[in-house]
Amino acid sequence: MSRPTYAVVHCASEMTPLAKVGGLGDVVGALAAEQARRGHRVTVALPAYRALAVPPGWTRRRLPGCEVPWGLGMEPAGFELISPPASGDGADGAPAAGGGSLEVLLVEHLGERRFFDRAGIYDDSARGQSYPDGAERFVFFARAALQALARRGEPLDILHAHDHQAGWVPCFARTHFAAEPAFASAATVFTIHNLGYQGIHDPWVLGLAGFGRELFHPAGPFEFFGRVNDMKVGLAFADLLSTVSPRYAREIQTGGEFGFGLEGVLQRRAGDLRGILNGIDDATWDPARDRFLPHPYDRDHPHGKAKVRAALREECGFPLAPDWPLVGTVSRLVDQKGFDLVEQAEADLLRLEARFVVLGAGRSRYQELFTRLMIQHPHRFHYRAGFDERFAHLIEGGCDLYLMPSRYEPCGLNQMYSLRYGTVPVVRATGGLADTVEDFDPRTRAGTGFVFQRYEAGEMVAALRRGLTAWRQPAVWAELVRRGMGSDFSWRASADGYDRLYADALERVREGRVPTLDSVRARP
Ligand code: ADP
Ligand code: GLC
């Protein structure tokens, strides 16, 4: 039976290979490419950042600009439509034969403050501060993108918004643009990639977005503890909601460190919320054809990994002997990722017979910690600051263990990359980490990694210790590595999940069960 295909528009602030800060970029890029491969006609709306990395061979076409309503005035927008070359084999994000297509609608802000023509994506990394006009940047992005799509006129089936930066998209579609033919039969879907970032602003933003102060009250979608919350707006107006792992879908309804104040909203929409586990882009993250690795290897030919490991060891300046396992981490250096456990466990970690390599940028507190560890223990600890794609791949390929002690983790991609690269993950049992890594049991020899439950430094060190013990038993280790490398995290299963989500959302539209300003007004 052939599957239905849809005209899908993703609205997101990141997409590989064009713009990436974290996993959101990987996921939007890989999901869009997989959907195009399965026959959907996919457009991704993305801000036209100055630092966009448009690969050679992509086609580019300018579209006419327009004026976007902006409070009581207007702001000018420009647009460009770019697309990957149609290689036919589906590589490099290009859609394969099968009727699907992939285009990216770049949204420019041509007003005086140039919201996107800046050094960074969310911040100017030179100063390490978020841009202070984040609210305006992404309200503008949402409104300008919808205006371009409305003008294009092609009827859409699915408008899929990702995270708070696209939070206004479902709202605008059901309000300012409700009468547009392009959106008349479209369903809206909102995906939470990380509830820890919500886009919370002073209430004047509501006026810029084109809504009156009379709508700003606790029972409505726009008010959140006296402020406006972009994530809450998305959650209120989308027909259906999803997040990036089944376990995180349950956790965020429990409040505290998971719900970040939105648990009530999520509990009320529990029946509309699904957990769809992310996949990984298995062309980019494949040790058999990874252009960043000095030697290829795979599950049936694992020997090349030793050469990659040697290259990494050398690049870190670690000595040959004693031959201790290498433990890697590639991450945004933020509290979510659990680095305060590393800080607390410093002395215990240094007592382990292991060497550590960390790649990451973020909070100065963690940058300083890792810099100090490297200076004090250059043979035990290597830290590279900044964003470095090649080194990220080398760490995945060259390490023996991968450490991800997250406080919370909506899905997490690096533990899945690690499994594929034969690098055994040591993770905390939260969100997608719990859904993708199974704890190793030395008696039955089942499991794919080392999992600890409580957010405690001692538990993390104990899990690492179990990993190092297994590493010293070559037969046990080889079997563990091989099992992990056989895990299937391809996008097929996830894309099936989104196809079902889309079909259900469209069913609601056909039945006329869609949120409107009136219907969400009373829904907190
Ligand atoms: P999150 O989205 O919360 O940052 P994920 O595990 O979902 O976490 O995805 C992180 C992605 O960003 C991975 O592809 C990881 O390799 C990449 N990444 C994070 N920091 C860096 C860095 N400093 N250099 C290169 N890649 C990085
Ligand atoms: C977020 C989450 C991460 C997830 C990624 C992609 O940034 O922190 O866990 O994998 O989005 O969905």
Q: Mind explaining what this structure looks like?
A:
Helix content is 35%, strand content 20%. The protein has a 9-stranded mixed beta sheet with strand order 3-4-5-2-1-8-9-13-14, with helices on both faces. It has 524 residues and is an alpha/beta fold. Helix 1 crosses helix 18, helix 2 crosses helix 3 and helix 9 crosses helix 13. It is globular, with a radius of gyration of 23 Å. The protein is built from 19 helices and 20 strands. Bound molecules: adenosine-5'-diphosphate (ADP) and alpha-D-glucopyranose (GLC). Adenosine-5'-diphosphate binds next to helix 1, strand 15, strand 16 and helix 13.
Q: What's a quick, concise take on this entry?
A:
With 524 residues, the chain is an alpha/beta fold. It is 35% helix and 20% strand.
What would the keywords be for this entry?
single chain; 524 residues; alpha/beta; 6-stranded parallel sheet; 19 helices; 35% helix; binds alpha-D-glucopyranose
